[in-house]
Write a structure and sequence with these properties.
By secondary structure, the chain is an alpha/beta fold. It is 25% helix and 23% strand. The strands form 3 sheets. Strands 3-2-6-1-7 form a 5-stranded parallel beta sheet, with helices on both faces. It has a 5-stranded mixed beta sheet with strand order 8-9-12-10-11, with helices on both faces. 39% of the residues are buried.
Length: 232
């Protein structure tokens, strides 16, 4: 393991057993672990004695550290010749800020290595028994974010199976946009809260009724939203 290097490591979707072997190896060797809110804290038990554990969590309307502060922290720790693991939920480059962090570090000549992680977009539906593709029902998948940067419109990509991350607070708008883009109101869909955790919950319905069902069952973030025939 290289000192002075930042490793962007995917922690997987939630269940600590779903981190990769390489990710676990790096966790055990790191001098510094900078981790996100959604990372399962059980993974931190693998840190070596004396490792610095720094929560850099960001949730909606609640940031322990701003992104600029996280970027500066990674540079500072790496410049002190420490081996740094930046532990991110899911995969570092899928709807996280991993690509931005990697670019920031490389611009400052900090060595960066990226360790892929199992994204909740793939792992959670599979763990729930919902295939994203099926020879008879789905030949395409679109993975989208339920939230855009301020001032940007929600982007809807047509596919047989449509999957949204970061959805709960914007669910009503997502459903409206899907129907406007041609989805039948009777299309089966599913919300999965805290996928792969022991307290995972899910709600299955149609586009017409999913908002009501979500509110009735008090579905909370993190949750993913799957739309398409494979749900049924």
């Amino acid at each position: 393991m290289s000192r002075g290097t930042v490793y962007l490591v995917g922690a997987g979707p939630g269940d600590p057993k779903l981190i990769t072997l390489r990710g676990l190896e790096l966790l055990k060797e790191a001098d510094v672990i900078v981790y996100d809110f959604l990372v399962n804290k059980q993974l931190l038990a693998f840190a070596k004695d004396g490792a610095k554990l720094i929560c850099a969590g960001k949730a909606r309307n609640h940031h322990l550290m701003k992104q600029d502060e996280i970027n500066a922290l990674l540079v500072d720790k790496a410049q002190k010749a420490e081996m740094v693991v930046r532990l991110k939920c899911g995969d570092p480059f899928l709807f996280g800020r991993g690509a931005e962090e990697a670019a920031y570090l490389r611009e400052r000549n900090i060595p960066v290595r990226v360790v892929p992680g199992l994204s909740s977009a793939i792992a959670v539906p599979t763990a729930c028994g919902v295939p994203l593709t099926h020879r008879d029902h789905s030949a395409s998948v679109a993975i989208m974010t339920g939230h855009r940067r301020e001032g940007k419109e929600l982007a809807i990509v047509n596919a047989d199976t449509q999957l949204f991350l970061m959805t709960v607070s914007n669910l009503k708008n997502i459903v409206k946009k899907l129907i406007e883009n041609g989805r039948s109101p009777d299309t089966p869909c599913m919300l999965i809260e805290k996928g792969t955790y022991k307290d995972e919950r899910s709600v299955k319905s149609t586009l017409t009724n999913i908002v009501t069902e979500s509110e009735k069952n008090c579905i909370k973030p993190p949750a993913i939203f799957i739309v398409g025939d494979t749900v049924s």
